[in-house]
Amino acid sequence: MRWLVGWSSIAAGALGGAVGYDGRQDDGAAYGGQVGYDGETLHPVGSQLLWGDPDPLWAVGDWRPDEVRVVQADAQTRIAVLGTCGASDEQLRVGLFAARGGALRHLTAWSGSYTAIVQVGRRVTVCGDLAGARPVFHTPWAGGTAYATAALPLADLIEANLDFGHLAALLAAPDVPAALHDSTPYDGVRRVPPGHALILRAGAREVAGYEPVASLAVAAAPTDPDSAVEGVRDALIEAVRARLSAPRHVPDIDPGPVPGMGPAERRAARGMPVPGIGADLSGGPASGTLALLAAGLPGMPGTLLGHGTGAGERLLAVTFNDLAVGGREAELERAGALAANPRLHHVVVAGSEEALPYADLDGPLTDEPGASLVTAARHRARLAAGSADHFTGYGARQVLDAHPARLADLLMDRKRRHLVRPVAALTKADGSVLVPARVYGAARRLARTSYRAGVEGLAERLLHRSFSFDDPGGAVGASLAALTWGGAGPAARWLTGEALAEVSVRLQGAAHRSGVGPGQRPGDYRARAALTRHAMDLRVLEQAVEIRSQRLHAPFLDNQVVRACRALPETLRVQPGARAAILRTVLKGAGVTDLPPGWGAPSQAPVTAAARAGLRMAMDPLLTLFEAPLLAEAGLIEARVVRKALRAAAAGEPLPLDGLADLISLELWLRRLLSRRGTCWTGTPARARAVPAGIAPQRRAVSSGG
């Protein structure tokens, strides 16, 4: 796990001196002058100091040398960029001078995925990303403000307790930003929303947006589809090139042979990735596009000569074959056809029952909870055969596809004729002649419903447990459920009335908060919320499956790629098969035209079958997990209700398995958090860590959720 942390205090420290990242002695400052309980200097465990002064900054974790860059104009003006950034040092210097005048957006406009921090005198600016994959957190501390790119270090710093209102909202309304707002699982630690920057001035904090938001009053300017797709192509190519141009990383040298094991088996057994660059190759359009782009661009994308296979320019393409649950034969065939490219070295990872969801309930503590905790072993099996730098197609669906609520946007812009093809596709999938009327009616209601009315309606439904779980399944049911400003999460049916009331109060407070509103159309608003949720889940997955010396790259979540995808016209997005058509055009523009038959077909991967099979295999450990769950101690669920649901789901009853995954993963995360020892900081006693007293009994019935 890698993160950065710093703080801005009101008064300058007066203790000793601190050495910055460039080796310069900073006189008159010792980590901001902050000390621990016993007078020791306070700093993070395993950190490297980037700069001292009254407002220090550290990088913590196994950062590569090329991932940490500091450019300094003078003693009081500097910029730090952590992550993969395609900007040169000169571009960073120009950006620093522009940021000194208050401009922020250009700091997020370079290719790659990174976090930029600018210090100008006593003003510190930390820029978050657009998707939410690189969030920024902050909390009041020692008369100023501490900030970090992880929430747990700040929770340790202030000994934060759990925010049960946030945990209830994660289960009851995970896709509704109004329910979560800027809270985190830790009480007192706040999150900077995507598309915003945290600005600190001598300890005082401000959160400012740097991205323009479309107006509700005026329709978006018409965009040429061809030029928009070209923009996506250019952004994706630059995102891939930024990774290829970075210095190659060679994991720790193999200490020697093991009898009966080849080099690849030895690396996997020791948790070492293959040197060089690789990519997922699932047979779907997103991973296939990145693999072909990375293999086709100049710059030796494959493994290093003399390491691994010795294939020099070949990119390692990894395909996961689920032997426990069939149904992916067509995808595997397409992956094999793509891997016939001589620039690809194809590896198929077979997974049986040990790679099913819930097969391994042990794992590392992540910064926040996420549903991917129950599938971490499944993903780790695939990534263990991957490269030191591994491309993934995560986020493509969220940035390219049309959220069903965008149908309401088309009605608001008087573009009814563009609803014909998506509604016809839903009708064909369902087979009912009533589908067009139902979908059009739901889209019309959403177009005429204000944001405040939509949030208040959801709060009322949660308060009275009036969920609609009888909607038809399939694409039609999902589309109808999504044609709202926000809906209840799949785990809401198993929460207690008190927990639902807590979330209802949070929603009502958001609806009545002065000046609060999305400032955009419902479809655009829901699409951004879905992207943020997916980015949060991916961040948890990356921490849960982390393999030493490996980096996962998700170019679809880069700022410039997200911006290019947002420029796509809605009339193009809503058409059936739009994502595959866009990516096919991207590949064609990059010179790749030989794609296998059926490429881009909708994935029919048996995710539900795998989840149900995993539940059946892990039923005994899961029932033991919910004998005396911490969620019940916190008042969020009743244990017997969840145990009954687990048995019913394993027996085949039509229950939302993703809701059970949310419950199980949150329970696992709570147990890992409370069983941890130590803290993220030195200079403090062992008691200075998050949730020091465990789960305290809740005396209040409903809190304000502020």
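Above is the first protein from milestone M3; the second protein from the same milestone is given next.
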Amino acid sequence: MTSTRPGTGRCPVAHGFDVFADAYYRDPALHLAAAREDTPVFWYERLHGWVVTRREDALRVLGDWQAFSSAANTAAQVPEKHRAVFPPELVSHMIVGQDPPEHTETRRIAQRGFLKDRMDRLQPEIEARAHRIVDRFEDNGSGNIVEDYCLELTTQTIMALLDLDHSRQPMLQQVRDDLFVVLSSAHEDITEDDRLAIWDRFVAANLELREIIESRRGSEADDLISVLASARDADGTWSLDTARIGLHIAEFAAAGTDTTAQAMANAILFLSRDTDTLRDALAEPELWSRVFEETVRRRPSSTFTSRRATADVEIGGVTIPAGDMIHVALSSANTDPAHRDRPFEFDVHRPDPTDHLAFSTGRHTCLGNPLARVQGPTGLQVLFERLPSLRPDEPVELDFRRTALVPIRRNLRVSWDTADVRRSRTRTARTLDLGVLAREQVADDVVALTLGHPDGGDLPRWKPGAHLDLHLPGADGTLVRQYSLSSDPEDRTTYRIGVLREPDGRGGSAAAHELVPGSTVTTSWPRNNFRLAPADRYVFVAGGIGITPILPMIAEAERAGARWELVYGGRSRSSMAFLDELAAHGDKVTLVPQDEAGLIDVPGLLGTARRGTLVYACGPEPLLRAVERATAGWPKDSLRLERFAPKPVERAEPDTPFQVECAASGTVVDVGADETLLDAAANAGLPVLSSCQEGTCGTCETRVLSGRADHRDSILSAAEHEAGDTMMICVSRAARGCPRLVIDL
């Protein structure tokens, strides 16, 4: 088919870039890297639009819906024969093709089906389904892991989310496949015969979905179809018509299956090249979420997301005319060296693992990302715990459905040792019943407990920074508390923890202090959110019991031959644990007992940035905040912290009470100084929605009809904050001097 679309001959172009080349399908980010370096914004005729490659430019495009509209994402042409039941204007109502205010309202309704707590509740079912799928093929020793496992798991999960009978699975799989082609056809050329065949199937599936939707009108069930079908406007009418819901279900079927399945397949490839990370994830299950995040950072399932310029605009020195399409290269933005150190390395220990654009950002952040972030790590964990020897067959075949915007891998052949099957049936549980082998008073109110198997057997491996969950008896049942490992990771026979008795605590430390040699205690396997990364030099800062995770880090730094220093503070020498061990390191250790020397001089210690140096700090919150301030000018990612409690939010002035008039319900709500607007509205019985409760997901975005808001979210732009048309009621409040807000609730 010959293109008749405008734009031919525009420049600059990236002569080496080709969305149908093997290099693109092998590694989209790497293929885009050369273009980003030479022509960060370029015209690409096959996509009939401009490609934007740098992160800064990507954030600009994705953050301004008025200058860069999503409406053109659904410009697909409906064949004449189907327009009676599938009007052309219906396509424009796809969520990926909506702008506010329509997008805000649709997202508000649809978000009810993807709330994070609901996705978390779904996790056990996802895990159980994953095990059942592996049961089917584990004895084969080889197979196509995309079809046999990844797509099967994601399809079964979306079926569960939609509450569809198994007999509907072929229909859902077909509508999933066809939607990607329908969307791509808005920007890519397609033959007329292929277009008609796809639309025949797509419309037939939508008609089937409409029958199901009608049967669930008014249902109180929480499956996604019922949620959409039962939403009503203030006048009691249905919020969404049946045809639109059918279209949205098709969107969710595509976004909720292929993208996560592709991410799992990509993770398998990355782990095959990084067996150390695979081994660590098997030993520390909490790492699976980081494996998933690093996978989608390095290779997002959707290479691009698209917008249309609503006015002439200059990006990266290139003038883009109004009406032109802009394709934001997410994979390139995620590997932009201006933002990310070692961008092409697969590193699951990056300090901020979710700092990527794989799920886009702002208003069009993927609705289903809470599901993906539960399903992906769970699926990978089950697969590799059951079949740890699983590896891709070499050479890896480039078998893709070759659509440029969303390259879909159809085949990834893998093999494994069937001896894994026998081992998995007798594998060690992820909790350990250990004995207390020794108890030592190492400081005022601090005991060191040495734990191990009574028979001296090997314990699971761990690395510096890891901790254990201890299951301890409490007045109201079992208490679970976390304690850092302070022993030597090279010793496989024992774990040592240090426990500070908190007189005003919640009972955990008191229960731990009751443990004596001969006691038994249930623990988790070691988990690590404070891992020691390689560096030429380290500065360790510890306060009080915060010395415990630092001790094994010092041992590791010594083994690696790295330079290091430790500054360790406490109330007094008698309150500072493990001083005898630290004495062996001489002047590398500086002790700062507060009753002798005052507080640690953090600005003096860290005021000058040092290249090649990492700072690790653990201790009470005032110390950690001082360390954060002192290292503000250091290179990105130089500081690693472990807190005893969540970081408090800084306020220049204390919050004050205010009133909110909820116009839709006619209710006036008093919001206390220590209460969120969201909680106050919920306590008043109003139908509020929320998910993250920290101003990052957009679920609770609410229109402001009158008054000024103090915006504390991470979604709205500075211009939108200034306009004050909406607010995130989970974190934002009335501005100082505004005693009353009127909102659309």
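Note on the second protein: Residues 192-215 form the longest helix (24 residues).
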